[in-house]
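ARCHIVE CARD
CATEGORY: sequence design from structure
SOURCE FIELD: tokenized fold
FIELD CONTENT:
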């Protein structure tokens, strides 16, 4: 038995090593394209998206070798879940307090509006239900991170995850380039309102940071970058609510019926172990931050530099593992499958991006006078 497990472990190495190489290349290209070519201080171009593209290119141009499949299959299933667990360290309740109470209902309104609008539009256009959910959570919560965290919960196919990531990335990059200047015109240069708008209407965390930096450098308003970053962190917190909701919705649609014939949905389907791990790390980060603010040491014994170094290291590893997993997703995806999905997902993605932008503008216009940042 032990010899079989060792042999099976060795079978994972070639394909897993390939995903690691593609991930490293993706991070390098992300920096070259976003910082050296486009001139951003922090690249808005997702390494995760590049990993999928490189994986798809290699997987479709070069015939797949059978001995590679176990390794990148392991990356898609196991490495992905570990990366999602480690993502929890990014979320801290103390960040919510910095935005103030008025920011919370605005963020909630944007999330709820984007979710409902995207799912309804997806149904109207006849989009596959799981793909519609992935685009909805990617638009409303935190881009690629939300998509890869929700995919396993709703049993999404690799092609659906790939297409959703592509849709979110395209419109997120466009928003990163356009929204800083649009927000300046819409809100007359008010940094609090601009930051809220950028943080609620742009999809991915790196893209929000990029847009906030563009605004700060273009209009000499660093407060807008701070407001955008905190708003996005608050938005990310709601992944802990949205994933169970999407799991419940998917389970109900799949008619999860127990042996006794009653319509009951098992808790394990609503909160898989990797989601529980995500929540535990988020709680750990929050407790550490609260104790740090209370007595100067996280958990009473970890200094501030050591605590920040620890969670920044975990955040870094979370990003690396997710990009490795997304390279595996790309290697598993075939162009012919994406072709069958057609242009409808991009229409839904465009409408979702416009919807969340409009909702954000309306809510900030109505309640923005209460914001002080």
């Amino acid at each position: 038995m032990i010899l079989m497990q060792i042999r099976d472990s060795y079978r994972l190495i070639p394909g897993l090593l390939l995903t690691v190489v593609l991930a490293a290349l993706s991070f390098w290209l992300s920096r070259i394209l976003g910082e050296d070519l486009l001139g951003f201080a922090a690249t808005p171009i997702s390494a995760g998206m590049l990993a999928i593209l490189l994986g798809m290119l290699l997987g479709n141009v070069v015939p797949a070798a059978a001995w590679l499949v176990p390794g990148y299959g392991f990356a898609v299933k196991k490495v992905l879940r570990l990366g999602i667990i480690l993502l929890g360290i990014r979320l801290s309740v103390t960040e919510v307090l910095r935005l103030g109470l008025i920011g919370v209902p605005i963020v909630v309104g944007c999330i709820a509006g984007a979710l409902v609008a995207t799912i309804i539009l997806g149904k109207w256009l006849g989009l596959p239900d799981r793909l519609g959910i992935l685009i909805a959570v990617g638009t409303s919560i935190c881009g690629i991170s939300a998509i890869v965290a929700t995919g396993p919960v709703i049993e999404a196919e690799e092609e659906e995850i790939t297409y959703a990531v592509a849709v979110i990335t395209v419109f997120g990059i466009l928003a990163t380039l356009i929204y800083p200047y649009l927000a300046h015109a819409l809100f007359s240069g008010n940094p609090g309102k601009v930051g809220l708008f950028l943080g609620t209407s742009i999809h991915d965390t790196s893209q929000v940071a990029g847009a906030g930096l563009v605004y700060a450098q273009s209009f000499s308003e660093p407060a807008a970058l701070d407001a955008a970053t905190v708003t996005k962190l608050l938005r990310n917190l709601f992944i802990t609510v949205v994933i169970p909701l999407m799991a419940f919705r998917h389970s109900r649609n799949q008619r999860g019926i127990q042996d006794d014939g009653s319509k009951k949905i098992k808790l394990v389907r609503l909160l898989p172990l990797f989601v529980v791990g995500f929540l535990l790390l988020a709680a750990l980060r929050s407790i550490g931050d609260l104790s740090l603010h209370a007595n100067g040491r996280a958990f009473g014994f970890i200094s501030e530099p050591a605590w920040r170094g620890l969670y920044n290291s975990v955040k870094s590893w979370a990003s690396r593992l997710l990009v490795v997993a997304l390279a595996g997703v790309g290697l598993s995806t075939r162009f012919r499958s994406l072709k069958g999905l057609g242009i409808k997902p991009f229409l839904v993605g465009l409408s979702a991006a416009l919807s969340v932008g409009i909702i954000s503008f309306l809510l900030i216009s109505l309640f923005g006078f209460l914001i002080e940042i």
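CARD ANNOTATION: Residues 2-37 form the longest helix (36 residues). Residues 1-5, 256-263 have pLDDT under 50 and may be disordered.
SHELF: design records, drawer C
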